[in-house]
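Researcher: Let's try something more involved. This one mixes different molecule types, so please make sure each is placed in the same coordinate frame as the others.
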Amino acid sequence: MIARERLNQMKEKFGSAILRADLPSDRQLFVWLQPEAVKELCQHIFRDLDARYVISIGADDRPFSGGFIVAHDFAFDTDHVLCSVLTQLPADEPKIESISGVVPAANWAEREMRDLVGIESVGHPYPKRLVLPDGWPEDVHPLRKDVPWNHVPPEFKEGASFEFEKTPEGCTVVPFGPFHPTLDEPAHFRLYVEGEMVRGCEYRGFMAHRGIEKLAESVMSYNDIPVLAERICGICGCVHSVAYTEAVEAAAALRPPPRAEYIRTILLEMERLHSHLLWVGLACHIVGFDTLFMQAFRIREPVMWMAEKITGNRKTYGLCVVGGVRWDITPELKAELNQVLNKLQAEWEPLVGAVSRDKNIQKRTRGVGVADRNVVKNAGAVGPVARAAGVDIDCRRDHPYAAYDRVDFRVITATGCDVWSRVVVRMKEVFESIAIIRQCLEKMEPGPLQLEIKDELPVGRIGLSSVEAPRGESHHFIITGENNRPRRWRVRAPTYQNLQAVPAMIRDQQIADMTISLGSIDPCFSCTDRMETIELRSGERKTWSQKELLALSQGKK
Amino acid sequence: MQVVWAICGGALNVALVLALAPLLHGVMRRITARIQSRQGPPLLQPYFDLLKLLGKEDIESGETPGMQRLAAWLSLAAVLAVACLLPMGFGAPLNLAGDVILLIYLLTLCGVSTLLAGMAAGSTYSMIGVSREMMTMITLEPLLAVALVVGALHAGSLRLDAVLNGSVYTGGSVPWSGLIMVTVMLLSLQAFVQRVPFDVAGAETELMEGPLMEYSGPKLALFQLASMARLVIYCAVFAGLFLPWGSQVPFPLGWLLFWVKVFGLVLLVTLVAATHARYRIDQALRYFAGLLGVSALALVLASFGY
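Model: All components are placed in one shared frame. Result:
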């Protein structure tokens, strides 16, 4: 009972402040605390117990318990425990001491909490607006329960623009984004450049808000949400869908049938395959090596066709329901999948050889975009970025979900901390994924695909789940609720943490390395920009209003 | 008679460069596509692309539209002026009008037009492109100058037909300086024609075409045509300087042979471009600096007659 051991360690120091603790299983730990002790306990967990920071969540719980809830999630990776430190705040004064001073990775999460739920983090080192549009009034917080999902405050100023910090002396400004050929989504890095050297940057993202969490909490039902969740990201849709269902299942203590778990594993790994192949290709394209880019895409294509045969869509869509899956893998599909894997392995090996031998690619990627252990720890970076820095974490092994506890695979790590190491990690992971799918196909027994759920899901329970997306850990936090939908659902995609490591990666590097450094975390801005009530956009220079743009785009149909 | 000959020859060269450059570009794209397991566009696609661009609205943008227009014309004009000077399968048409020095000036003018284009746009990205182009020019242009001077030293003349006829190999029993320069120029040909791995000034994924980012429509067509012609011109200079064999063969055959050589060089450029990643500007400059050192050695050798 390692989770209990951890709890006892916390009790030793903070016994009087801990109100109650839940251990629903040996893998999840919930500690309810007095608000005053949160910062110190988080510091203890993060520094002394060396846990990894995952995310902070703010929830408006006023209609149910009369107050606000704040949760800080941590992961004890070697102990296989996910831990949530929770506290309740009074409805009239939702303020809590900021933990960003001791846990730097919480910087964004706490700012977002203030923007969207209106929970103030007192003493935050950089309390600038993060998520809300620039013209949004200060006192309207979209994720509060008394704000309807389609509410636009009348005070909203559409033309307001973002105010950047002062440019450091001796530097010129190079705007990287909001639109740039290597960014497939809008995001803005304002680079402070001295000659060809980047000295610093400021990030303004969150430009395309889709209000996914608010929709889930106010409009949709449990089994609609997986379909919404997989649209969070254009690549790792299946990851979010599985992460959501696993979180609900953890909260409601449900266990899907084994066959369903195997099928989830297979499709997750197929997603990793096509994502890794795409990314290695893109990395080659960014450094100007288009031939390998094209070859990687050619090799990737059969995986997409296979996904289409299984799920009806090139993306692995529509797979999960709470308690099971929708799609089965028939014997014919199994045979075909095996063939695709054989071909993929045969074609991937020479490509890995070609990339590994190419001196040019190594020249462009070695020692570039360096994020060492320290940066990884402080930014809470995950996935290949962490593994390339020798941080041996992988949710598939550390917090097993689906059928990962029944398959053998290696967690690939490297020690270079640079872009090249990330390339190596992702290239090698392809072979592990192929092996995992083969094992699943081998071990899968016939059986039901879905659990029969007769009763309503319990209300007010909390569930956590971490799923290893191709780019890193996707973490979902859920509080179950009434009306067949969750009260609060918080998604933390890997890019959310990895992006916070980018300023450290690009500092004092050539501007030419900016694109490959940013590309090396495989940024997914749609994953990150996920929560807002309405779509609003405020450009720096205003030429078109949102209404005009909408009229323009809709009028052409 | 000589005047008529010069005019006809020059016009023929210009017409051929203008007409064949897009075709060679099409061949290049097709071969690249094959290497990448793609089908690739039709061979004539570059002609259609240029025609399409020429038919588009001529938009004035950037900080100084006048300079922008000038730069586009200048880039093509400089390349075509070089075409009049070069021996392309027959004697240099304007042999009496200019010498090797003029050739160096005109080729530098191609680069200068890119600089003007970038400065006319005045955006941050194009300025970075300009600074990269400038750094590249400073280290790159001397290489060509040295190669031509080595040829001129051996030929004992600055006349084009004397230098651009394999004169680099004429010094001593083992033409050391010529052999060194042919290696140096082979290693830097990719940079002269601005292709991967040395397309740092316009690197699409970093600078969004750098100096050319404000260009569109007809002006972009001029620049693109100039860039295609530039490839032909540099291959022609290379063929003249270092691949003289067969240039004495009478007109139709020798002339055909010349274009075969150019085609072979274009093929080489294509293959290298398709199998390399882009260098970063500092890595590229270090590379050029190394070549510059070696070419200085060649210059010393040539001045002592080797």
